[in-house]
Amino acid sequence: xxxxxxxxxxxxxxxxxxxxxxxxxxxxxxxxxxxxxxxxxxxxxxxxxxxxxxxxxxxxxxxxxxxxxxxxxxxxxxxxxxxxxxxxxxxxxxxxxxxxxxxxxxxxxxxxxxxxxxxxxxxxxxxxxxxxxxxxxxxxxxxxxxxxxxxxxxxxxxxxxxxxxxxxxxxxxxxxxxxxxxxxxxxxxxxxxxxxxxxxxxxxxxxxxxxxxxxxxxxxxxxxxxxxxxxxxxxxxxxxx
Length: 241
Fold this sequence. Notes:
Elements: H1 8-14, E1 17-22, E2 25-30, E3 44-46, E4 61-64, H2 68-79, E5 87-91, H3 95-104, E6 107-118, E7 121-127, E8 130-132, E9 135-137, H4 144-156, E10 159-174, E11 179-193, E12 205-211, H5 213-219, H6 225-239
Parallel strand pairs: 1-10, 2-5, 3-4, 4-5, 6-11
Antiparallel strand pairs: 1-2, 6-7, 6-9, 7-8, 7-12, 10-11
Protein backbone atom coordinates (compact mmCIF):
# COMPACT_ATOMS: atom_id res chain seq x y z
CA UNK A 1 0.00 0.00 0.00
CA UNK A 2 1.40 3.39 -0.98
CA UNK A 3 0.95 6.40 1.34
CA UNK A 4 1.13 9.61 -0.65
CA UNK A 5 2.98 12.69 0.61
CA UNK A 6 0.93 15.66 1.88
CA UNK A 7 0.24 18.26 -0.76
CA UNK A 8 0.11 21.99 -0.06
CA UNK A 9 -3.63 21.75 -0.62
CA UNK A 10 -4.06 19.09 2.07
CA UNK A 11 -1.94 21.10 4.50
CA UNK A 12 -4.23 24.08 3.85
CA UNK A 13 -7.34 21.99 4.52
CA UNK A 14 -5.93 21.06 7.92
CA UNK A 15 -6.26 24.65 9.13
CA UNK A 16 -9.86 25.26 8.07
CA UNK A 17 -11.36 24.37 11.45
CA UNK A 18 -10.26 24.17 15.04
CA UNK A 19 -11.80 21.16 16.77
CA UNK A 20 -11.92 21.56 20.56
CA UNK A 21 -13.22 18.83 22.86
CA UNK A 22 -14.31 19.92 26.34
CA UNK A 23 -15.83 17.05 28.31
CA UNK A 24 -18.49 15.62 25.94
CA UNK A 25 -18.80 18.70 23.74
CA UNK A 26 -17.20 19.15 20.32
CA UNK A 27 -16.65 22.87 19.72
CA UNK A 28 -15.88 23.86 16.12
CA UNK A 29 -14.24 27.18 15.24
CA UNK A 30 -14.21 28.14 11.55
CA UNK A 31 -14.16 31.09 9.18
CA UNK A 32 -17.43 31.92 7.37
CA UNK A 33 -15.81 31.23 3.99
CA UNK A 34 -14.95 27.69 5.11
CA UNK A 35 -18.30 26.95 6.77
CA UNK A 36 -20.74 24.40 5.40
CA UNK A 37 -24.12 25.80 4.32
CA UNK A 38 -25.93 27.62 7.11
CA UNK A 39 -29.18 25.77 6.34
CA UNK A 40 -27.54 22.71 7.94
CA UNK A 41 -27.90 24.32 11.36
CA UNK A 42 -31.24 24.16 13.23
CA UNK A 43 -30.46 27.32 15.23
CA UNK A 44 -28.33 30.28 14.09
CA UNK A 45 -27.46 33.04 16.56
CA UNK A 46 -25.77 36.17 15.24
CA UNK A 47 -24.05 37.67 18.27
CA UNK A 48 -23.64 40.99 16.51
CA UNK A 49 -27.34 41.54 17.09
CA UNK A 50 -28.29 39.10 19.86
CA UNK A 51 -26.80 39.09 23.38
CA UNK A 52 -25.08 35.86 24.34
CA UNK A 53 -27.26 33.79 26.68
CA UNK A 54 -26.86 30.26 27.94
CA UNK A 55 -30.57 29.61 27.36
CA UNK A 56 -30.15 30.15 23.60
CA UNK A 57 -27.68 27.31 23.13
CA UNK A 58 -29.02 24.16 21.50
CA UNK A 59 -27.57 21.06 19.85
CA UNK A 60 -25.66 21.89 16.65
CA UNK A 61 -26.34 25.61 16.96
CA UNK A 62 -24.24 28.06 14.96
CA UNK A 63 -22.84 31.10 16.78
CA UNK A 64 -21.90 33.83 14.31
CA UNK A 65 -19.62 36.79 15.00
CA UNK A 66 -18.83 36.08 18.67
CA UNK A 67 -16.63 38.44 20.67
CA UNK A 68 -13.76 37.16 22.78
CA UNK A 69 -15.95 37.70 25.84
CA UNK A 70 -18.66 35.52 24.28
CA UNK A 71 -16.19 32.73 23.59
CA UNK A 72 -14.67 33.04 27.06
CA UNK A 73 -18.11 32.72 28.64
CA UNK A 74 -18.95 29.71 26.47
CA UNK A 75 -15.71 27.97 27.44
CA UNK A 76 -16.44 28.51 31.13
CA UNK A 77 -19.91 27.02 30.70
CA UNK A 78 -18.42 23.96 29.02
CA UNK A 79 -15.60 23.47 31.52
CA UNK A 80 -17.97 23.77 34.46
CA UNK A 81 -20.46 21.48 32.70
CA UNK A 82 -23.28 24.01 32.84
CA UNK A 83 -24.40 22.89 29.39
CA UNK A 84 -24.60 19.36 27.99
CA UNK A 85 -24.47 19.56 24.21
CA UNK A 86 -22.63 17.31 21.78
CA UNK A 87 -21.79 19.92 19.12
CA UNK A 88 -21.49 23.72 19.10
CA UNK A 89 -20.27 25.65 16.08
CA UNK A 90 -18.58 29.07 15.97
CA UNK A 91 -18.12 31.07 12.79
CA UNK A 92 -16.06 34.27 12.84
CA UNK A 93 -13.96 36.34 10.46
CA UNK A 94 -11.43 36.83 13.27
CA UNK A 95 -11.00 33.08 13.71
CA UNK A 96 -7.22 33.34 14.04
CA UNK A 97 -7.53 35.94 16.83
CA UNK A 98 -10.14 33.78 18.57
CA UNK A 99 -7.83 30.78 18.32
CA UNK A 100 -5.04 32.74 20.03
CA UNK A 101 -7.48 33.93 22.68
CA UNK A 102 -8.69 30.40 23.40
CA UNK A 103 -5.13 29.10 23.66
CA UNK A 104 -4.24 31.90 26.10
CA UNK A 105 -6.78 30.47 28.56
CA UNK A 106 -4.91 27.17 28.91
CA UNK A 107 -1.55 25.54 29.38
CA UNK A 108 -0.87 24.09 25.91
CA UNK A 109 0.42 20.54 25.51
CA UNK A 110 1.58 19.14 22.15
CA UNK A 111 1.09 15.49 21.21
CA UNK A 112 1.03 13.14 18.24
CA UNK A 113 -0.83 9.96 17.41
CA UNK A 114 -2.01 7.81 14.57
CA UNK A 115 -4.28 5.30 12.94
CA UNK A 116 -2.32 2.28 11.73
CA UNK A 117 -3.67 0.32 8.75
CA UNK A 118 -3.09 -3.32 7.89
CA UNK A 119 -5.07 -4.30 4.81
CA UNK A 120 -8.65 -3.33 5.69
CA UNK A 121 -8.10 -3.28 9.47
CA UNK A 122 -6.97 -0.54 11.83
CA UNK A 123 -5.22 -0.78 15.20
CA UNK A 124 -7.01 0.29 18.37
CA UNK A 125 -5.81 0.11 21.96
CA UNK A 126 -7.82 -0.51 25.12
CA UNK A 127 -6.77 1.85 27.91
CA UNK A 128 -8.53 2.72 31.17
CA UNK A 129 -11.61 0.72 30.13
CA UNK A 130 -12.14 2.58 26.85
CA UNK A 131 -11.08 2.01 23.26
CA UNK A 132 -8.51 4.56 22.18
CA UNK A 133 -5.82 5.31 19.60
CA UNK A 134 -2.07 5.30 20.32
CA UNK A 135 -0.77 8.78 21.03
CA UNK A 136 1.49 10.67 23.41
CA UNK A 137 3.15 13.93 24.38
CA UNK A 138 5.91 15.56 22.39
CA UNK A 139 9.44 15.27 23.74
CA UNK A 140 12.14 17.95 23.57
CA UNK A 141 13.46 18.43 20.04
CA UNK A 142 10.62 16.55 18.32
CA UNK A 143 8.10 17.72 15.76
CA UNK A 144 4.55 16.36 15.46
CA UNK A 145 5.29 13.59 12.89
CA UNK A 146 8.27 12.33 14.90
CA UNK A 147 6.21 12.24 18.09
CA UNK A 148 3.33 10.43 16.41
CA UNK A 149 5.64 7.81 14.87
CA UNK A 150 7.51 7.19 18.15
CA UNK A 151 4.41 7.01 20.34
CA UNK A 152 2.55 4.61 18.07
CA UNK A 153 5.50 2.22 17.95
CA UNK A 154 6.13 2.47 21.71
CA UNK A 155 2.51 1.93 22.72
CA UNK A 156 1.78 -0.97 20.35
CA UNK A 157 5.10 -2.60 19.45
CA UNK A 158 4.18 -2.33 15.76
CA UNK A 159 6.68 -0.95 13.24
CA UNK A 160 4.98 1.64 11.03
CA UNK A 161 5.48 3.88 8.03
CA UNK A 162 4.31 7.46 8.60
CA UNK A 163 1.74 8.76 6.11
CA UNK A 164 -0.60 11.69 5.61
CA UNK A 165 -1.98 13.90 8.31
CA UNK A 166 -5.58 13.06 9.18
CA UNK A 167 -6.67 15.96 11.38
CA UNK A 168 -5.80 17.92 14.51
CA UNK A 169 -7.73 17.97 17.78
CA UNK A 170 -7.62 20.10 20.93
CA UNK A 171 -8.62 18.27 24.09
CA UNK A 172 -9.29 19.90 27.47
CA UNK A 173 -8.28 18.33 30.76
CA UNK A 174 -7.52 19.52 34.27
CA UNK A 175 -4.78 17.91 36.36
CA UNK A 176 -5.80 19.72 39.54
CA UNK A 177 -3.26 22.49 39.09
CA UNK A 178 -3.71 23.76 35.55
CA UNK A 179 -6.27 23.83 32.80
CA UNK A 180 -4.65 22.06 29.88
CA UNK A 181 -5.50 22.09 26.19
CA UNK A 182 -3.71 19.28 24.39
CA UNK A 183 -3.18 19.67 20.68
CA UNK A 184 -2.79 16.29 19.01
CA UNK A 185 -1.92 15.92 15.36
CA UNK A 186 -3.07 12.61 13.96
CA UNK A 187 -1.46 10.74 11.08
CA UNK A 188 -2.34 7.82 8.88
CA UNK A 189 0.25 5.01 9.17
CA UNK A 190 0.97 1.74 7.41
CA UNK A 191 1.87 -1.41 9.32
CA UNK A 192 5.32 -2.66 8.31
CA UNK A 193 5.74 -5.39 10.94
CA UNK A 194 3.39 -6.44 13.76
CA UNK A 195 5.27 -9.53 14.94
CA UNK A 196 6.01 -7.72 18.20
CA UNK A 197 2.47 -6.42 18.71
CA UNK A 198 2.17 -5.83 22.45
CA UNK A 199 0.35 -3.22 24.52
CA UNK A 200 2.57 -0.90 26.58
CA UNK A 201 1.27 -1.87 30.00
CA UNK A 202 3.26 0.82 31.82
CA UNK A 203 1.04 3.31 29.98
CA UNK A 204 -2.09 1.53 31.28
CA UNK A 205 -2.77 -0.09 27.89
CA UNK A 206 -4.52 -3.40 28.40
CA UNK A 207 -4.86 -4.53 24.78
CA UNK A 208 -3.81 -3.61 21.23
CA UNK A 209 -6.14 -5.10 18.63
CA UNK A 210 -6.64 -5.09 14.86
CA UNK A 211 -10.25 -4.32 14.00
CA UNK A 212 -12.33 -4.48 10.85
CA UNK A 213 -15.07 -1.96 10.06
CA UNK A 214 -17.70 -3.85 12.05
CA UNK A 215 -15.41 -4.15 15.10
CA UNK A 216 -14.54 -0.44 14.95
CA UNK A 217 -18.21 0.54 14.80
CA UNK A 218 -18.87 -1.48 17.95
CA UNK A 219 -15.76 -0.09 19.72
CA UNK A 220 -16.91 3.47 19.04
CA UNK A 221 -19.75 2.91 21.50
CA UNK A 222 -17.13 2.86 24.27
CA UNK A 223 -14.63 5.57 23.43
CA UNK A 224 -14.10 9.35 23.63
CA UNK A 225 -15.68 12.02 21.37
CA UNK A 226 -12.16 12.97 20.25
CA UNK A 227 -11.44 9.45 19.02
CA UNK A 228 -14.82 9.22 17.28
CA UNK A 229 -13.98 12.43 15.43
CA UNK A 230 -10.52 11.25 14.35
CA UNK A 231 -11.82 7.93 13.06
CA UNK A 232 -14.64 9.60 11.14
CA UNK A 233 -12.12 11.95 9.52
CA UNK A 234 -9.91 8.99 8.64
CA UNK A 235 -12.78 7.01 7.14
CA UNK A 236 -13.98 10.00 5.10
CA UNK A 237 -10.52 10.88 3.74
CA UNK A 238 -9.11 7.43 3.07
CA UNK A 239 -11.79 4.75 3.10
CA UNK A 240 -14.66 6.48 1.27
CA UNK A 241 -12.80 7.47 -1.89
